[in-house]
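Today's session is about reading a structure prediction critically. Students often jump straight to the picture, but the first step is always the sequence itself: look for stretches that repeat, for charged clusters, for runs of hydrophobic residues. Only then move on to the predicted structure, which in these notes is written as discrete structure tokens rather than atom positions. Here is the chain we will use throughout the hour.
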Amino acid sequence: MQPDTPRRGELRIYLGAAPGVGKTFAMLGEARRRADRGTDVVVGLVETHGREKTAQLVEGLEVVPRKHLSHRGLDFEEMDVDAVLARRPEVALVDELAHTNVPGSRNDKRWQDIEELLDAGIDVLSTVNVQHLESLNDVVERITGVAQHETVPDQFVRTAEQIELVDITPEALRRRLAHGNVYPARKIDAALGNYFRVGNLTALRELALLWVADQVDVALQRYRSEQKITETWETRERVVVAITAGPESETLIRRARRIATRAGAELLVLHILRGDGLQGAPADKVAKYRRLADDMGATFHTVVGDDVPTALLDFARGVNATQLVLGTSRRSRVARLFEEGIGATVVQESGPIDVHMVTHSEAKRAFKWKFGRSPLTPRRQLLGCAVDRDPVGRHRDRGAAARHHLDLHRHRRLLPRHGDRRPRRVASGPAVVAAAFRPGC
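Below is the predicted structure for this chain, in token form.
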């Protein structure tokens, strides 16, 4: 019988917008609380950066000796992964998640060292700044003008069981810096005038807040899926715009973008395909609107469903959407008498989701029946509908009444003369209505 596989350790990450916000301090505070509760905690590696208050929190915790390495004639210290694994604590503190190890180390990156500790069943507390996240590296460089060479994959950070944002206002961080609590005195002025400008810190703080908010949203979606919750929770504004890839799609996407911008909402563009493959839009049209969605900062999604309203609402509820944007129907008013359009059905069944119906030029091209195009007056056209609506057996009884009202002698110009082969304009409206209401049809 094979021995049980040890459980994987849990990772808790303290994320900050910039150096000095208090990530390591918060991590050490949590470590001391766990140690006071009797948990076996060791310090794998913690960088105090000469900060007295941070160093005081390390006192009293067991520290695993570091491993000494030489590279290009210089001596370096790295975490001794083998020593931590041999010690097998319940919790290990490993600072600076994105750190690149000295050549000759067990792994190239510190996050890979942490991966080994987690695989061995050791819980890990670690820290990272938002500028070291791989997906935001180029954004941070454009904001601050400083290239970050040490990064950590977002996917690894997302695997953490807990991500705690250590937040502080830009003004408070600058005061902390000015008081000498972050860097030595010789570096303060340069830091305040460059990386730690208010604008930089504000932008970095927003990046950190938004990144963590996205992770919270993912966790919420996972919980709703596991608990099979389909009703909308309005925790965050999210706009879904449904398109057919028809010519009106560009208008709808742009209008939805404005709605989402005003609401501070995420925008999702949804293209619905019929399950039978019929009435599909050309691939080049779909690609065009996918590119437009990207340009608008939206995500593009495609679902398959024969019942369009149901497919649309299922998707909207699945992503916890709060608003829907649809185009007005291209169906004629006569057609809408017999069957409600997609928009009307969605409005009736949308529940707490707000629905916006957007007008567009294509809606004006629907077939319209106008009485004025017939040589008969509207009254006689309606009378024709009534006569044609009757069962065949009643035509004989009402023929005299029809002849009296229509007065065929006065309207004989409507009848083709013998040998006259020119087309005549006749009233088509009564025939259309009669066909729709004729018994047995």
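Discussion point for the tutorial: The chain has 17 helices and 13 strands.
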